[in-house]
Predict the 3D structure of the following.
Amino acid sequence: MPGAAARSLAVCGLAVAAIGCAATLDIADRPWDRWWRSPAPPPTPLEEVPSAEIPPPEGFHPESGQLRTVPMKWEPRLTSDVAGYVIERGPARKGPFRRLDRVEGRLTMFYVDRGDATASDSDAPVLDDGATFFYRIRSYTPKGRVSVAASVIHPATTAQPPEPPAGLRAYSHQPRQVSLSWRAPQDATAAGYVVYRSPSSGGPFEPLAQLEGRHTTVYVDSKLGDLRVFYYQVTTRNALGGEGSPSETVRAVTKPEPLPPIGLRIVEQRLGANRLMWEPNVETDITEYRLLRIREGADAPEVVALVPPDATTAEDDAVAAGERVAYALVGVDSDGLQSASSEVIGVECEGYGLSARGESDGVHLRWNPRTEEGFHGARVLRTRWFTSQELAFVPSDSYVDGDARPGKHYRYVVILERPDSTRAPPSLPVEIEVPRR
């Protein structure tokens, strides 16, 4: 027994030592592992012409109706003399056929022609929508010899260009825009649309927008002018950008701006105020009128009043006495469209009729007191540069500046005043040089 136990311990020791020794080896040092990790050899070059007496695969069938691709299947040849297959394509049943690609492995049973040029045929045509090609398949041996016999030739056609959308409709008389809608075609390849526009029914139609999604069936063409006519077409596009034929052409007209108001006129003038009147517009959706004033030398008109559509009069009470101004009127509709300006009218505002005359006793001033407008007197001012001096309050229509000196130049302004101390706008200044005595 002791001897047997010793022998067992010895065997175990050798096993443990062997395991420990193996654990210290680098995996990379194993020759069988280097063989396992070595890259696969390059595929055997194929002979340029068929040469092997081996049969082609059976059941070869390219499938039509796919989007710019042609998938194909076949039954494999399960013999050791077959290493793979060669796919050939031609533009007609009689050819010429050119090598499209090779598939390795005799158990391979599927291939997809995506229209890409390959290394074996860099000039291979690219598949397009509705393109028809003819296909056949050959076997090749492990040494690269291609079979003489080819499979039965089969045609395949890619999916046709997508159908145009139906029921294209344009909504006219919208403010500076046109809304379009249509129905999505019953076409599985439809992935979006291209909207085209032309100012003429005969074209040319230019692309306006590209829409993504089969159910994106509305579009708004905005930022257009008033009373503009446009023609529209829509095409369906597939996922690869192919477009079908255009839809029917539809016409649309944007909403016109309101007509310019007519009959603008002055109906009353008072000191510092003008009342104007005009004829109502024929449009039923006018929301307001805008009365504009143009002062002499101004760069742009000023808005005097915003008048509701049921009113046809407005008053400008912010003019100077004797000032020359011009007026214009525009109409605005419910969509914010503004008409062109009415005829512009010019007017001289009511003034004081202020005059100055030099006499031996001073400067004689005279004006219109306008008592019928509620004024009961006037303040007389002598002005110079940026200063003014009030000379007197006069409850009449004249004043004599007895302090004026002969040979001097003077400038006067008159301001009418009401009993409640409210004042009219100042008169236009009058200037005079007092004659020497």
Remarks:
- The mean pLDDT is 88.
- The domain at 265-348 is CATH 2.60.40.10 (Immunoglobulin-like).
- DSSP finds two helices and 28 strands in the chain.
- The first strand starts at residue 58 and ends at 62.
